[in-house]
Design brief:
15% strand, 6 helices, single chain, 5 strands, alpha/beta, five-stranded mixed sheet, Protein-Tyrosine Phosphatase, Chain A
């Protein structure tokens, strides 16, 4: 079964060995960007140098509409024959936002709350980056539903680093 995997940077190599994903999204601050790890083709690795902030003025490289458009396009190009690995530094904010965005795009309008609730169940630590979600909500024409759904699940359990989570690609399995 194909799925989206969300991990912190520290778990990337182990996750690649264990799950053999075909595609990978890296969301790290530009100064911490990594090269494509062994086991992933460079052409199937989206590397986005973006700071983990919720306000545009809070960093040099905040999430932007361009970053969200790249996540959506990359998610659409992923054939889902093998897992998609999404990671950030801690596996809590940018990566959970990106996974949420890909799933909302894949499952379509009206699924935002169900996906957010499933994310909370599978990742009690998830705290999707609100700026990324807001930009995706606008880009996908969700009229605030993505934002409201993420706000509804709340901050989540406070941890220093998240664990690897599996998000199935069947809405019924989420």
């Amino acid at each position: 079964m194909s799925m989206i995997l969300v991990t912190p940077l520290s778990a990337v190599e182990d996750t690649i060995r264990r799950y053999r994903p075909s595609h990978m999204v890296t969301l790290l601050s530009p100064e911490h960007m990594i090269e494509t790890p062994a086991g992933i083709e460079a052409a199937q690795h989206l590397r986005l140098g973006v700071n983990d902030v919720s306000e545009v003025e809070a960093a040099e490289v905040p999430p932007s509409a361009h970053h969200v458009a790249e996540i959506v396009a990359f998610g659409r190009s992923w054939p889902a024959e093998a897992p998609l690995l999404v990671h950030c530094w801690a596996g809590i904010s940018r990566s959970t936002a990106a996974a949420y965005i890909v799933l909302c795009d894949r499952f379509g309008p009206g699924t935002e709350i169900e996906i957010a609730q499933a994310l909370r169940v599978r990742a009690p630590h998830a705290y999707p980056n609100s700026l990324m979600v807001s930009l995706a909500d606008l880009a996908l024409g969700r009229e605030g539903r993505m934002i409201r759904a993420v706000n509804m699940i709340g901050r989540g359990k406070i941890v220093a680093e998240g664990e690897c989570i599996e998000l199935p690609l069947e809405l019924a399995d989420l």
